[in-house]
Design a protein that fits this description.
Blueprint lengths: L2 H22 L14 H7 L2 H31 L7 H9 L6 H12 L4 H9 L15 H24 L3 H9 L4 H12 L1 H16 L3 H6 L7 H8 L7 H35 L2
Length: 277
């Protein structure tokens, strides 16, 4: 029953991946003759912008994923049981889903720009004598903040569903056996929500690693992510489709390696907490 839909998805994805990999090796060349070669990979490996963009994308994606899950987990635990106002709080957490990423980036610029709301307010109340530059910071705090704000609902929904699926009888049984609050979390809640945590980390990492809009609007001018570097290479000034394919294939590899590493990190963390007395 799954074959028609799943088969179509697999075929379409395989075609796209094959085309990107083939282009990275000189085939399907839009700007010249098709020659199977490693020259485009060698050119990228010798390019400092390529390695800088790879490190930057890995840094943004890893930090955003970890912070999003770290914030979403206690919120999901808190909102596990309904209480007065919990519906409103849950709706506020999910609100970023209704704001496109590009719009969110422009909204942030209005808040943290040189003459944005934050600077104007701080000067008005007398805490700052002059505007402080917060936009396009070299450490990527604006991008990470945007990513966490945008990806928090995804992590929250995955973790909340996993936490709410734990039967009260299991927690009560652990309590009857003498387990305190921390022990119940380490021995019951954390292991049972590990899969949801892994899924949240992986999905957020992949989305943040390949994001273009936040980097283009709020990122530092002298640093590229893999997505912005790829668009620059295939733009009108460079027209290097093969080099852009190399970056695209590398980005897919980064997503795979990062996803496996984060999933393994969660498993190690869970085993460590279970062994702590």
């Amino acid at each position: 029953m799954l074959t028609p839909g799943l088969g179509l998805v697999v075929v379409m994805m395989s075609m796209v991946i094959y085309r990107a990999v083939a282009q990275s090796f000189g085939l399907y060349n839009f700007g010249g003759e098709d020659i199977l070669s490693l020259a485009h990979w060698q050119e990228m490996f010798d390019n400092r912008r390529y390695w800088s963009a790879l490190r930057w994308s890995g840094y943004i994606a890893t930090t955003s994923a970890l912070l999003s899950v770290a914030l979403a987990y206690p919120l999901a635990l808190w909102l596990r049981r309904p209480f007065f106002g919990s519906t409103i709080l849950s709706a506020m957490i999910k609100a970023p889903y209704f704001v496109p990423g590009l719009v969110a980036a422009f909204l942030l610029i209005n808040v943290i720009s040189f003459h944005g709301f934050v600077n104007e307010f701080m000067i008005w109340i007398g805490l700052w004598d002059k505007p402080v530059r917060m936009q396009n910071d070299e450490n990527g705090y604006a991008i990470i903040g945007l990513q966490v704000w945008k990806q928090l609902p995804l992590a929250f929904l995955l973790l909340l569903g996993s936490i709410q699926s734990i039967p009260d009888s299991v927690l009560h049984a652990a309590q009857d056996l003498g387990a305190g609050t921390l022990a119940r979390f380490r021995r019951v809640v954390l292991p049972l929500t590990m899969k949801a945590m892994q899924a949240a980390l992986v999905l957020i990492f992949i989305g943040a690693a390949g994001d273009f809009s936040f980097q283009a609007i709020a990122g530092p001018a002298r640093k590229n992510s893999m997505a912005t570097l790829m668009t620059q290479l295939q733009g009108s000034n460079y027209s290097d489709w093969n080099g852009a394919a190399v970056v695209g294939v590398t980005l897919m590899g980064l997503s795979l390696v990062g996803a496996v590493a984060l999933a393994g990190f969660v498993q190690l963390m869970t085993k460590f907490t279970e062994n702590v007395r």
